[in-house]
Amino acid sequence: MNMKIVLVSAALTVVSAVAAHAGCAFHDKQAMSCAEGSTFDPETSTCVPPASS
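The chain above was modelled as a monomer; its predicted structure follows.
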């Protein structure tokens, strides 16, 4: 009986951890702050200076 409780508890812990990780669609997207005068380039994921005209 005790072994069943341990196994069920472990299974629920693993399932909840996987669900928490998978459910967060935006976990890799963070706010980016660039220095004044530069802008964020989403293609390179870096800050770039303004294009001169």
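Residues 2-48 form one domain.
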